[in-house]
Design goal:
Length: 281
């Protein structure tokens, strides 16, 4: 079972991969890109994902925002830049916090955007601290997604919003004869995926009202295919590197395979990409 320390290890040891394939030094993001007719580049698609979430959430300057699973800070910076809201990002990865903290310091916004190493299922924040909780492709890393939902309910003020995007399995009882989902999860330190319906049911049981649940699978398919092609291109150099460096970290060793597994699973309709907005009653 992948524990929080394993998730931290994954991100700490694969950040250099994201720096290369996600143009991390410019995009500041690790997530799938949402494509539309106006999208020209992958970097534009990645930014577009943030834009979709921001528009749905309707974040205002007066809002206090928690970015749960903040990565290297791209979404937090995007939210503040476009709304002037105060944003706190949390992640299990010390390396991500260091990257993000340096970034906001360079931009001169570290008094409005800060980052901490913290588990989003067990935070140290007081009850009803936040107006908005943002979670872009981070909740899938939680072993127990219901623990996150309960913590989000505790942290949000009445009328507060939870905005998230993530990969969800299509059906809890689906047949995955090639175990694409399990294999994919092993390369990303994801213990389990659940369906969006199971997640939504959990939200409802914890005093959330679902405002929208939108399927963006078609819009991220181009990103998924890009990852698939990258995995094929990276197979020979990755395996060669592994051969000459037998002590390479476990996640770095198999990371290139994630692009293959996620796309094969998508081809078999085993997962969907949903954007969910929920409001605390």
């Amino acid at each position: 079972m992948f524990e929080p320390k394993d998730v931290a290890e994954y991100y700490n040891t694969t950040q250099n991969h994201y720096e290369k394939w996600w143009d991390l030094r410019n995009s500041y993001s690790l997530h799938y890109g949402i494509w539309n007719k106006q999208t020209k580049t992958f970097r534009d698609a990645v930014v577009n994902t943030n834009r979709v979430l921001l528009e749905l959430a309707g974040i205002k300057e007066a809002d206090r925002v928690l970015d749960a699973g903040c990565g290297v800070g791209g979404a937090a910076i995007f939210v503040h830049t476009n709304t002037k809201a105060r944003v706190t990002g949390i992640t299990l990865s010390e390396k991500q916090v260091a990257f993000a903290s340096n970034l906001v310091k360079e931009k001169g916004i570290d008094h409005q955007v800060d980052f901490q190493v913290m588990n989003y299922t067990q935070t140290s924040f007081s009850d009803q601290t936040f107006d908005v909780i943002w979670a872009c492709e981070s909740i899938s890393s939680a072993n127990d997604k219901m623990m996150f939902i309960k913590e989000a309910a505790r942290l949000l003020k009445k009328g507060g919003k939870l905005i998230l995007s993530d990969c969800f399995i299509t059906d809890e009882n689906q047949i995955d004869k090639n175990e694409w989902i399990r294999k994919w999860g092993e390369t990303w330190a994801v213990e389990n995926h659940i369906s969006s319906q199971t997640f939504v049911d959990g939200l409802k049981k914890n005093d959330f009202e679902i405002k929208s649940n939108i399927d963006y699978t078609a819009e991220v398919t181009k990103s998924a295919k890009r990852m698939y092609v990258a995995s094929l291109l990276g197979m020979i150099p990755s395996e060669s590197y592994n051969f000459f460096h037998p002590k390479v970290s476990r996640f770095a060793k198999s990371h290139y395979k994630s692009g293959y597994y996620q796309y094969r699973a998508l081809q078999e309709n085993l997962w969907k990409y949903n954007v969910i907005l929920a409001e605390k009653k």
